[in-house]
Specification:
about 350 residues, alpha/beta, 434 Repressor (Amino-terminal Domain), Rossmann fold, 6-stranded parallel sheet, 6-stranded mixed sheet, 12 helices
Length: about 350
């Protein structure tokens, strides 16, 4: 069978081509029963609108772009899936672009790379600051993720990283840990996310009356689990002692678990460990990993809500939304008995 046409759907549903077009473009004045009949014909035939024709008729492509730093980072992989699923439910296709936190690539996302291809952009910047984003971003509807930049002119969705880190550190304190390390700070590259998580970690310790020890903030050479394992082992080898570790993300926590194991320490008996992002990795470590869990489905929904409103003509200053987070308890830092 060749490509299914609009007229094929109209004939099967027993309606006009105009009615099918109204359903495809989600015009609100179509009667519910008629919409159901047309949608059933669309589903039966596997009809897919022609994007070129749609753009000529409506000025829309039905596509949105998602620009993230790393496609293979577990958090961004899982978040991308959630956003793609939410977008599909709303009738959009998603073009995913990797920037690798490169300044030129980030500028290209907003300057020219997506121009005319998509109806809106969801973007997790790392290098661009608020002024750059406000200056470069002009016409394409945009929603930002992450903590790198929060211009007042642009919609933005994130979790409260300071509060989440503080809650995680407080859980370690409640487990009786008093020498809590933070893993870690990448040498020469303190990102905004890391900085805010470090602030929350310090707040919890100060409020508990524990003196801050700079040696407990571990420096790693890069973002790999291997460097985190090396940093953990090196800290222990030089005599640093700690009984808890709050990790920047789950990949860092993988390194911590390996470094502790190779140093002959048991988790959580000797050292309790908490990761961040609650990715699929957390359920398959040994022991399983307690982790800060951003509400990824909610994050995807709020992001698409804001983007759709912008795409439909919403004007005004940027709206900044915090989505919930929680602590998923597993073996590495177990939940306290109720």
């Amino acid at each position: 069978m060749g490509r299914v046409r609009l007229i094929d759907v109209a004939e099967l549903a027993g309606v006009s081509m105009k009615t099918v077009s109204n359903v495809v473009h989600d015009y609100p004045h179509v009667a519910p029963a008629l919409r159901t009949r047309v949608q059933a014909a669309i589903d039966d035939l596997g009809y897919r609108p022609n994007l070129t024709a749609r753009r000529l008729a409506t000025g829309r492509t039905g596509m949105i772009a998602l620009a993230i730093p790393e496609i293979d980072h577990p958090y961004f992989s899982e978040l991308s899936r959630r956003i793609a699923e939410e977008a599909t439910r709303r009738g959009y296709r998603v073009l995913i672009e990797q920037t690798l936190s490169d300044t030129v690539a980030e500028h290209a996302v907003l300057k020219d790379r997506e121009a005319g291809l998509v109806d809106g952009v969801i973007f997790h910047p790392v290098r661009m600051d608020a002024i750059e984003l406000a200056t470069v971003h002009k016409d394409t509807p945009l929603v930002l993720l992450g903590e790198a930049a929060i211009p007042s002119t642009t919609d933005h969705v994130m979790i409260d990283n300071v509060a989440a880190a503080k809650e995680a550190a407080q859980h370690l304190l409640a487990l009786g840990r008093r020498r809590i390390a933070f893993l870690g700070v990448v040498d020469g590259d303190i990102t905004v996310s890391t900085n805010r998580r470090l602030v929350g970690y310090q707040q919890a310790l100060v409020e508990a009356g524990i003196e801050l020890d700079p040696d407990l903030v571990l420096t790693v050479r890069d973002f790999s689990p291997e460097s985190c394992a090396d940093a953990t082992r090196a800290a222990l080898a030089r005599g640093l002692r700690f009984d808890g570790v709050l990790c920047r993300d789950d990949k860092f926590a993988l390194g911590a678990l390996q470094g502790l194991h190779r140093s002959g320490l048991a988790v959580p008996e000797d050292v309790a460990v908490i990761g961040w992002d609650d990715t699929a990795l957390a359920s398959y470590t040994l022991p399983t990993l307690t982790s800060i869990a951003p509400d990824k489905p909610r994050l995807a929904k709020v992001t698409l809500d804001l983007l759709e409103e912008r795409m439909n003509g919403h004007q005004g200053v940027g709206r900044h939304r915090l989505v919930p987070h929680s602590l998923t308890f597993r073996e590495s830092a177990p939940e306290l008995p109720r």
